[in-house]
UniProtKB/TrEMBL annotation:
Organism: Cellulomonas persica
Protein name: Lysoplasmalogenase
Highest taxon, organism lineage: Bacteria
Keyword Cell membrane: no
Family: Belongs to the TMEM86 family.
Major location category of this protein: membrane
Pfam families: YhhN
One MF term in the entry's GO annotations: hydrolase activity
Cellular compartment(s): Membrane
TM ranges: 12-29, 86-106, 118-139, 145-163, 170-189, 195-214
Any one GO cellular component localisation term in the record: membrane
Keyword terms of this UniProt record: Membrane, Transmembrane, Transmembrane helix
Membrane-topology annotation of the record: Multi-pass membrane protein
Coiled-coil ranges per UniProt: none
Amino acid sequence: MHSSAAVRRWSIGYGVLVAAHLGALLAGADDLADVTQCLLMPVLAGVLWTATRWPRGHTVTWAFGALAASFLGDAVPRLLDGDAAFLAMVGCFLLAQVSYVVAFAPRARRSVVRTRPAWLVVYGAVLVGLVALCAPHAGTLLVPVAVYGGVLTAMAVLATGLGRLGAIGGAVFLLSDALIALARFVPGWDLPGQGVAVMLTYAVGQALLVAAVASDNRARRRARPTTLAVRTPTTTRDNVVAFVAVRRVGV
């Protein structure tokens, strides 16, 4: 059986790993940075596993899929070069975003789509602005980048259905990928500490999404016993009535 102590251990491990990765980036220790980045998502999956209980259900299952695809997005491009590496990264993280969209879709009624539709204008403006900045220099990569941007924005919108943690996590993840796109396609883009900023927002965004998914799982499990408690007496009375009726017929 999982315990809060296990959640703390995995969470501390993730925090230490993130710190080690950022430190490696700042120190120019490329090998250590590669190893620690590839370990981020497996350790975060450990956090999600220990922070949730059976029945984990739809949202948790698809969140694990998103973490697995994110791991591939961190690892696979290191085996390739140039545009092939970039497309591999985009493809893997596209799968991750699709998985998150599927995970969060059942909470759409609690998201800004239904509760604050005016916010859709803000998310749409961010997407249009980002694509517009990248388009002049994206060339043949414009279509995959635009598709990825659309799915990424949809993930951030639907993540608001998991509450504040989900909303912030989705927005921070969107920021991380926006920084990558700007550095790749906008000439002269030179953000100080670009690599550290990308990975910090990536690690924090993913962690917040996992925390939101775990919180949603706890809320659903707390609601389940209440539902059963309400239904059980009715079922029992119905069974007793049926039994008495059979006995009377037998008499």
